[in-house]
Amino acid sequence: MVRISIAGGSGNVAREFIDALLATNNHTIIVLTRTAPKDDIDARITQRVVDYDSPEQLVDSLHGIHTVLSFIQILSDVDQKAQKNIIDAAIKAGVKRFAPSEYGSAGTTNMPWYEGKQKIREYLEKVNETGKVLEYCLFQPGLFLNYLAFPHKTSKHLSPLGTVFDYQNKRALLVEGHEDALMTLTTVDDFAAIMARAVDYHGEWPAVGGIQGNKVTVTAIVELGQRLRGQPLSVEKVKIEDLEEGKLTSSWGLEVPHKSVSKEKATAMLKQVTIGMLLSTAKGAWDGSDELNRMFSEYSFTSMEDFLSKGWIKK
InterPro entries of this UniProt entry (predicted)? Predict the structure, then answer.
């Protein structure tokens, strides 16, 4: 049993992981929060209010902590100051392990909303450049498979989010000439289960922790949607040259923004994310690795068809 600190622990992805960690009953869990403690948090969890702009307070909060996992919303962390301060404090406090706020794609190309992830990847490399002072792992499950059930909620905490594969309206967007681009998709339950195993793992974490629930082509995703919905999906193909120029020539795009995006910025952000998702997929950013599959080879992942059949076969 070790002491685990979770930064940004009130977010929906963090709460999925926390539930899986609580189920093991193996660790002391401390959630770091900027605001007052929340009433709907499990009583087994200690909530600690911290100022992420105060290095001294962070060091005090992390004394005696074995592992720190960050789920801080990177869009709200200007220049990733909070995460950098947590990393610095973790090193000073003698923390053994750290996981930055990743939990998505392997690459960040053409996804400006993920620039913060790249900054933290580079920062972690820098702090260890003359010798390892902090063990860390980039946990990358690809796209949460749950999002393909949009608008239906398929897990306790994760909010539904639309993608370029819109099974609800029987349509999809693809990049012309890149129909065989690969994507990694993992259910949030499988992600949380693997994360809990990683926390229990006694060996050294790999720097990159790819999690492959499913690896399929974008064409296979469309074909599955057609089987589940009982008729062909309307597929629009866009040219990569237009996307590179910031042009979205399709008749539709993403319509529901992430809850972290303000109403004022939503329209521009939705277009940017639609273009970015298409471009990044075509360039392999969502073709994740399988380090944690190999580390926990006994674990049986949920197949895409089995999972989505439960969500769509009755719709």
Answer: NAD(P)-bd_dom_sf, NmrA-like, NmrA/Isoflavone_reductase-like
